[in-house]
Design goal:
By secondary structure, the chain is α+β, with helices and mostly antiparallel strands. 15% of the residues lie in helices and 32% in strands. It holds the Pfam family FAA_hydrolase.
């Protein structure tokens, strides 16, 4: 199933995206005596999804046209807005490693972080930072944790996932490589757009999904998640050995080849005002943002 966070009539809600439109979680309350309102984070933390899924599937035939909202009428929000952690994996596709400057194939996942200030929604404009010029795109599959995970095995790791969404690990390369730490170039305001929806883990295989980026309508990245050096289960297991993953935490799983950084220096055309980036992942949808 696909879930999304949105604002409509000055109210923030969570909804189910269906072929007929969006059903708000709040509208399902009449079919149960359980509390269903709240943010997607609350839904995850309180394990409400099985109830929501059961209610919707049982009563779907009862919904009329007026029960559905038009997706185009909604102001889409980041699926989650206050994760405790935003963890990112670098150099996780072999061809991406080879296009970088003097990068070795990692023997373990390369981890860095972003902060909540970097979150942005589908359709939201991304402002250029005051300092730094070399803005780059990075299409990524993003894991949304559903359970507290501490030192979990690879075999069990995917059981702790709530779902998956699309992310753009926007980067300012001249800030990223200003020092030995990547943080400065990774977490300017709105430099981690995610969405537009979350596909729940029971309805998607994260290990074999086509993933691509378009810059102003032209394909610049195209790959499949089966080309990851470390798959989602390996990443979760590895991270959970060193820090406890919490419900709602986000993990950006790395980008394939085709980033601007990988071009020869004379051919690098960094993102600038007016550039539109569309990231598509099979089974999830398309995330679109514009640089201003």
């Amino acid at each position: 199933m696909k879930l999304l966070s949105y604002q409509y009539n000055n109210s923030i809600n969570v909804g189910l995206l269906t072929p007929n439109g969006v059903i708000s979680i709040e509208s399902l309350r009449k079919y149960t005596d359980k509390e269903l309102n709240g943010s997607l984070e609350t839904l995850i933390e309180e394990k409400q999804f099985p109830i929501i899924k059961q209610i919707f599937e049982k009563n779907e035939s009862s919904f009329g046209e007026s029960d559905y909202l038009n997706y185009a009428d909604l102001h889409i929000l980041p699926p989650v807005s206050r994760p405790e952690k935003i963890i990112c994996v670098g150099l996780n596709y072999l061809d991406h490693v080879s296009e970088g400057p003097d990068m070795d194939v990692p023997e373990e996942p390369v981890l860095f972080s972003k902060f909540n200030n970097a979150l942005a929604a589908d359709g939201e404009d991304i402002p250029k930072p005051l300092d730094g010029e070399q803005i780059d795109y990075e299409c990524e599959l993003v894991i949304i944790m559903g359970e507290t995970a501490q030192d979990v095995s690879e075999e069990e790791a995917l059981d702790y996932v709530f779902g998956y969404t699309i992310g753009n690990d926007l980067s300012v390369r001249d800030l990223q490589f200003r020092s030995g730490q990547w943080l400065l170039g990774k977490t300017p305001d709105k430099f981690a757009p995610i969405g537009p929806v979350v596909v729940t883990s029971d309805s998607i295989n994260p290990n074999q999904l086509n993933i691509s980026t378009k810059r102003n309508g032209r394909i610049v990245q195209q790959s499949n998640t089966d080309k990851m050096i470390f798959n989602c289960a390996k990443i979760i297991s590895y991270v959970s050995k060193y820090m406890t993953l919490k419900p709602g935490d986000l993990i950006f799983t790395g980008t394939p080849e085709g980033v601007i950084l990988g071009y020869d220096e004379g051919e690098q055309e960094w993102l600038d005002s007016g550039d539109e980036i569309q990231i598509a992942i099979e089974g999830i949808g398309t995330l679109t943002n514009r640089i201003i």
